[in-house]
Amino acid sequence: MCGIGGVLMNHQKGSPEAITRQVQAMLSAMRHRGPDGQAEYASESIGMGANRLAIRGIDQAQPPLFVHESGVVVACNGEIDNHRTLRTSLAAQGHVIESSSDIAVIAPLYLEKELGFLEHLDGVFAMALWDPRRMRLILARDRAGERHLYYATSALGIWFASELAALQVAAPANTEMGRQSLAHYLRSGYCPSPRTLFARQFKVCPGEMIVRERNKTRYMRYWSSPIGRKQTSPPSASTFDTIFRNAIERQTDVDVDYGVLLSGGLDSSLITAVTRQVRPTHQLKAYCIRFAESSFDEGGSAQTVARLHDCPLTPVTLDAPQVPQMLRHLIRTTGEPLADPAWLPLFLVTEHASRDVRMLLSGEGADELFGGYPTYLGALWSSHYGKLPAVLRKAIQRLVDALPVSDKKVALSFLLKKFVDGQAHDGLMRHLLWNANLSPEWIQRLGMDCPVDQVEHRELPLLDLVQSYDFGHSLPDALMAKADRGGMCHGVEIRAPFLDRAVIEYASTLPADARIKRLRTKAFLKDYAHRYLPPEITERRKRGLSVPLGQWLRGPLRDWATERLSGEALRSIGIRTDAALALMEEHMQQRGDHARGLWNLIVLSEWLEWAGEARNDASSTHELPVQAAFSRASSF
Fold first, then answer.
1. What's the distance, Cα to Cα, between the start and end of the chain in Å?
2. Are strands 258-261 and 285-290 parallel, antiparallel or unpaired?
3. If we measure between CA atoms, which residue out of 228, 204, 23 comes closest to residue 118?
4. C-alpha closest to that of 635 among 222, 337, 119, 221
5. Residues forming beta bridges with residue 129, ordered by sequence position
6. pLDDT at res. 380
7. Contact between residue 59 and residue 100 where contact means Cβ atoms under 8 Å apart
8. Model's pTM, two decimal places?
9. Residues 289, 349: contact at Cβ < 8 Å?
10. CA 268 to CA 248: how far, in whole Å?
């Protein structure tokens, strides 16, 4: 795990010294990602560098960047879990790999497989590979999008970095806002790949390889989600047990101490239980977040699981007064807005964990793969609801609208209101509206455009379709972005065993009734978990990591929120601050639960202030000529 950055100039424009300084500036902006060393490479028109967070191969003074004897250069942020198997097969083909680092297998594998090398890598990665023989630069991101890579291109060249904030210190200063990117952010709280809020800066998509060769660029998919593509088969708990245990064994084959993020819910509890069996001699430390608000606090459940599996538990409490400064720090460190309030407690708990461990296991991916979200129940039951007589549906609508707003976590009133409000739309759009932070009506009241969704509607059953959408969008660009940015602010890597390739492929063979059975979500995974956990854990109602934001916005954060909503930052991009304040007033009067929509706007306001500062700083530091003609060939 580390931070990488680099620049490739077209036609050898820009001196090697200037290129090196740009790479060093990007690495300096990401020093928090890699406290264990730094290295740069520069030759002719290319410069690359990496900060290192040592997870594997710590017995040697490994450089965080590898230059192969062939001239191929690799900078990789991530972990190659099948490096031992690859090392053996590559040795049989005559490659001598002296370094013990898992990253050392990438260049020899590329030499053997050419552009097909990524198909043979298992793990998490965002990488840059330079082949001077072909003047070829490859940028790539892992299958599930667990690691991130940002880039900008112009007639002068291409710049790339692990964080958007680092890209700003080197790429040509062009901070024009993308209107559709903004629309997507306002609805969902994140920008789906390849978008960022900057119109001319992008993210590599999950499972994508970008090949820049002799001033021409190709965008290639080396992997696509198998959800809905594989033939289903009867589930087998014994078969899955072997797959899941192997996944955890691979991910914990590291040279540093590691722990687990434990909420007491099914996913993190199952990871804890299986890890204790797979690594019985390792003292597995557990970390959980706590709140004073009882309906949000999961400390009791986490403590039960920790005692059951003999794990020392460190609880960390988040309070409202910590929020403003924490949000400001996160945005200025990473450079991209993310309106998931769970970013804050994750940042806090990994700060405490960093005193003990370098890596944490987490339960991300289980819901998307095994059918865990309440909205998946809605996807299955909405067709039945739509068949009810219109007069009955109207009566239900009136009853649901009359339910009082609740500040409790996973409030039934909130879920029911979302369910009935989306009935006028098709299946996928209904799913998107159920998950929206701001409704189309409020986005328009704010003076903004609604997002245009250019999603490929494959001929899939609705449950497969919505799971596939979440796996390819909100999982990589919201949940895994939260994990990466929250953890790496403190030099802590977060790994997700449910996103191991073999686990993904097995989950994709589960029939619908093994995922959702009547009103029971994650049916197969819960049945499997009975091998390791008691029923009070496996059948516990899904809660997820969330923050008592609705209550805080009505109380201790009210003045701060009002200031952010009424400020010049939002007004400068055309958002009607009077509408933003009206949204706040409805929330204050409990005429609607607008906590997530308000948080979208608050985070955006904070980000806009940072973007303005970054623009002013960048205009005085770039040494290479500025070119405004940016482009990205994509379907967006």
1. 30
2. parallel
3. 204
4. 221
5. 74, 138
6. 75
7. yes
8. 0.91
9. yes
10. 12
Round the average pLDDT of the chain to a whole number and report it: 89
What is the C-alpha separation between 142 and 137, in angstroms, rounded?
Answer: 17
Structure tokens at 189: 């709280």
Query: What mean pLDDT is predicted for residues 185-213?
Result: 96
Give the orientation angle of helix 343-353 with respect to helix 323-334, to 10 degrees: 80
Question: In one letter, which amino acid is 367?
Answer: D
Per the rule left: phi > 0, alpha: psi between -120 and 50, beta: everything else, 365 is left
CB neighbours (10 Å) of residue 389?
Answer: 8
- Say if residues 3 and 30 touch (Cβ distance below 8 Å): yes
Q: Which residue has the tokens 């701001």?
A: 438
pLDDT, mean of residues 311-338: 95
> Please, is 500 exposed, middle or buried when counting C-beta atoms within 10 Å of its C-beta (0-12, 13-18, 19+)?
buried
- Write down the number of H helices and E strands in the chain: 28, 19
Q: 594-630 b/e with 16+ CB inside 10 Å = b?
A: bbbbbbbbbbbbbbbbbbeebeeebeeebebeeeeeb
d(CA 247, CA 249): 5
Using only C-alpha atoms, what is the Rg of the chain? 24
Question: In the chain, how long is the greatest CA-to-CA distance?
Answer: 75
- Cβ within 8 Å of residue 177, ≥6 positions away: 197, 198, 199, 573
pLDDT above 60 (res 135): yes
414 phi and psi angles, rounded to 5 deg: -65, -45
What is the per-residue pLDDT for 384? 57
Report the distance separating Cα 559 and Cα 562, nearest Å.
Answer: 5
- The amino acid present at 290, given as its one-letter code, is R
Dihedral sign of CA atoms 604, 607, 609, 614 in order: negative
How confident is the model over 231-285, as pLDDT tens digits? 888 999 999 999 999 999 999 999 999 999 999 899 999 999 999 999 999 999 9
Which residues are CB-neighbours of 139 under 8 A, at least 6 positions away?
127, 128, 149, 151, 160, 204, 209, 210, 212
Run of H or E residues at 67: strand 65-67
